[in-house]
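Recall the central idea of this unit: under ordinary conditions, the amino acid sequence of a chain determines the structure it adopts. In this exercise we apply that idea directly, starting from the sequence alone.
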Amino acid sequence: MAAKAPDTSLTDTASQLRDAVVRTSRALRQEAAAETGLTPSATAALATINRSGPLTPSELAERERVKRPSMTRTLGCLEREGLIERTPDPADGRSFLVAVNDAGRERLARLRRRKSAYLARRLRDLDREEVETLARAAALLERMREDEQP
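Accordingly, the structure predicted from this sequence is:
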């Protein structure tokens, strides 16, 4: 039996979707950087700490898929900005835990509002059917992401 030929329409759609998501993500990161002065990696680390913290630097580095020394520099930046707090790790006296403080939560909330406003401004240029299509696409993208979670 012959091997099934790849579905080029799915491949083409995947490529177009990837490009659109990457460009939109880049625009959102640039919008956030204009607000905070934080690098995209620092913003991502802050969001991860907020969502999953408190975390050790090693746990955070693993979640962000970076080396520990890079994460140490990022945490130094977040600490200088007054967005996180360090506390001793009760499980390992040689390490510490990082958690987002009130200033960090407020910065993240401002970032989310700014990014949402950026997208809302662009949605205003679309007709109702296009907005509904994007709402369905957002739900589908979320479902695709959830399906890959362990």
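The chain has a mean pLDDT of 89.
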